[in-house]
Hints:
Elements lengths: L1 E5 L6 E5 L7 E4 L6 E5 L8 E2 L15 E2 L18 E2 L8 H8 L4
Parallel strand pairs: 6-7
Antiparallel strand pairs: 1-2, 3-4, 4-5
Amino acid sequence: MQLERSxxxxxxxxxxxxxxxxxxxxxxxSQCGSALWVFSPEWPELPHPFASVIDTPLPVQPxxxxxxxxxxxxxxxxxxxxxxxxxxEYPEESIAExxxxxxxxx
Length: 106
């Protein structure tokens, strides 16, 4: 999916093609320090922009997956919708497989 992005402190805008990520490197705006995206050189095709910099209207997802609930802090309230998955650990399904299963890639 092509995502238009910008930092709210800078006039610069850019775009990137993004598939589901597995992030390792965080990138920040040099003017305000806002987190822009995460990246791993092992998977250069998988940049992952932070939601705060995405200007493109994104499709509404059919379900959410709430994971690592087995180790969440007791004060964290999980907001569930009908059909959401709740997992104590990481799922077997990858982020890419989830998007493929729901037909929401590109």
